[in-house]
Amino acid sequence: MNIAVIYGGRSGEHEVSIVSATSIVRHLDKEKYQLTLIGISKEGRWFYQDHTQIDNVRSQEDALLEIQQDGHREVMIVPGGGCTHGLRAAGAGNIFVNVRIDLAFIVLHGTYGEDGTIQGLLDMAAIPYTGCGCLSSAVSMDKEMTKAVWRNAGLPVLPHQCLHCGDVLATDWNQEKLKALVAPAEQDFGYPLFVKPCSAGSSVGATKAQDFQQLAEALKEAFQWDYKVLIEPGLNPREIECSVTGNGANFSPNSTAQNQSPLPGRDASRTEETNVNQVRAYLPGEIVPTHQFYDYDAKYTDPNGARLMIPADLSQQQREEIRSIAVRAYKALDCTGLSRVDFFMEKDTGRLYLNEINTMPGFTSISMFPKMCQAAGLEYSPLLDLIIQQGLDRFQQRSALQTSRR
Predict the structure, then answer these.
(1) What are residue 233's DSSP bridge partners?
(2) What is the distance between the terminal CA atoms of the chain, rounded to a whole angstrom?
């Protein structure tokens, strides 16, 4: 099977994507898959990568994939081209040649990766891909829209105030006008407050504000990353995460994978059937940050920024409640393939709130998503097999739908 690993991207999480993709390339079974590397620059240009990079990262533990920007090896997508003609790469004499792939493994975090844009592009090209579809990716990327869906489904979410760039800029950062604009958050929640862009991941642009002056600075930072910003109450929470896989509530049980053997660790995950496309939530883990909160530096630049506890120190009842809510949250957004559902648990009361969902979570060998699956008995390489199979099954299901009357 030919797999195109797509990584990099025009995103604040470009470097994180490279680390995740490197780990995935190392763990994809060489006996099962032939790999093609597609690196996307920070400017959004797609480039066909030299195959020697695959051998390099597999043989050297500290090596990372690169994005070689050779103008003679640019890649284009052909609408309706499918697996044999949907992906084209420049070759000798600048003549584009078809690259056959059976599936695209999307390893893009954040903007233009988790927001439905590449999913829609691959849908147009009729190329199968891993993970969530266009709509669920787009909705899940927008924290305000995600909360609206979850609230409508009766799931627990934090109260918040959403500010739009135009409203804030209309104040011209005048303190009195700005204070009037954020008054609902100040009055309803009190300080501290958390400020975060609606559609950015990895805590990019997220800040904790202790007073109005810090809040104003936090808003300036957040609006560098998005045109919508959330203000939320500053809880004193435990940060609990839960890995989920499966092809959502609307997936037909008549799939190619229906009669396969149960997954390793099935008994340790919440499941309704043995079908590999059924939604499963795995053992929850906990992030214990050493910073004020689990910010970008704690996640990626400070080796001592946080401790990962897998499984989280929870009662059996709490674990089951988290798994149940994670499955409901995943299905409410019609997610497919994989996601990591993040919770806040109030330390004083034990009350749970859904925080956000990541449709392409970090995927290094030490990232929470694969490690939580591993704790439930599903090792890294079989997890990749599962995600690939679900991507193929989802494409087959979608392709069977009618698109015309004839």
Answers:
(1) 193
(2) 32
C-alpha 183/C-alpha 197 separation (Å) is 19
The beta strands (E) that lie in 100-209 are given as 103-107, 161-164, 193-197, 207-209
3-state secondary structure 72-98: HHEEEECCCCHHHHCEEEECHHHCEEE
Query: Is 306 exposed, middle or buried (CB count within 10 Å of its CB: 0-12, 13-18, 19+)?
Result: buried
d(CA 108, CA 10): 9
Which helix (H) or strand (E) covers residue 52, if one does?
A: helix 52-59
d(CA 311, CA 193): 29
pLDDT at residue 291 in the model: 53
**Are 157 and 353 a contacting pair, CB within 8 Å?**
yes
What pLDDT is stored for residue 206 in this prediction? 87
Query: DSSP strand E in 121-170: where?
Result: 161-164
Residues 6+ apart with CB under 8 A from 27: 365, 380, 381, 384
Helix (H) or strand (E) segment spanning residue 138: helix 134-141
Name residue, tokens 């970008």.
296
Query: Which residues, listed in sequence order, are joined to residue 36 by a DSSP beta bridge?
Result: 4
Place of tokens 């025009």: 10
> Is residue 333 a contact partner of residue 81, using CB atoms and an 8 Å limit?
no
Per the prediction, the chain carries an average pLDDT of 89
Residue 319 binned pLDDT confidence (cut-offs 50, 70, 90)? very high
Task: Determine how β-strand 34-40 pairs with β-strand 2-8.
Answer: parallel
- How many angstroms separate the CA atoms of 334 and 153, rounded? 12
Q: Dump pLDDT digits (tens) for 111-141.
A: 999 999 999 999 999 999 999 999 999 999 9
**Radius of gyration for the alpha carbons in the chain, expressed in angstroms and rounded:** 21
Q: In what order do the strands lie in the sheet with 103-107?
A: 46-48, 34-40, 2-8, 103-107
Task: Please give the structure tokens belonging to residue 7.
Answer: 């990584």
Residues shown for the chain: 406
- The span from the CA of 198 to the CA of 231, in Å, is 10
Contact of 19 with 364, CB cutoff 8 Å: yes
Q: Number of helices (H) and strands (E), helices first, in the chain?
A: 13, 17
For 296, counting Cβ atoms within 10 Å of its Cβ (0-12 exposed, 13-18 middle, 19+ buried), the class is buried
pTM of structure: 0.88
